[in-house]
C-alpha cells in the first residue's frame, strides 16, 4: 500500500471527511504481549499465562492488553499517511475510545482511518482522525475512537 503524503494544511483539507486508508495486517504474538506486560507492570494472567487463559479464560487464549493494541497505532498510521515537512507532531488526545473486542494472541489487526475534521489554528493544524482497529475474520473491531493530532509544518 502506498501511504497518502501530506505536506501542508491545504493537503489535509483535500481529505476532510474522507477515508484516508487502511494499513496492512499486523500479527499480535505472545512475545509482544509479554514485553508490553513487562513495560507496563500489567502481568494479569489473561495476558501472560497461556495455559491458564486456555483453561479458565473467557477467550480461549491469552489476549493483548487494550493499550497494547492502541500503542501500535503509530506503526499502522505511518502505513496510511506520511506527514512530511514537519517541525513537530503532537499526540493531542483520544476521544470516544471504546475497546469493543478482545484481541487474542496470534490475531491479525489493521487500522482503518478517516479524516473527521481538520482545522488551522493560527499555523498549527489540528487533525481529528476516526479510527477503527479491525481484527481479521471478526465482525467487531478491537477498538474505535477519534485520534487528535497537532501538526506544526515548516
UniProtKB/TrEMBL annotation:
It holds the Pfam family MaoC_dehydratas. Coiled coil: none annotated. InterPro entries: HotDog_dom_sf (IPR029069), MaoC-like_dom (IPR002539), NodN-like (IPR039375). It comes from the Bacteria. Residues 12-132 form the MaoC-like domain. This is MaoC family dehydratase. It comes from Algoriphagus aestuariicola.
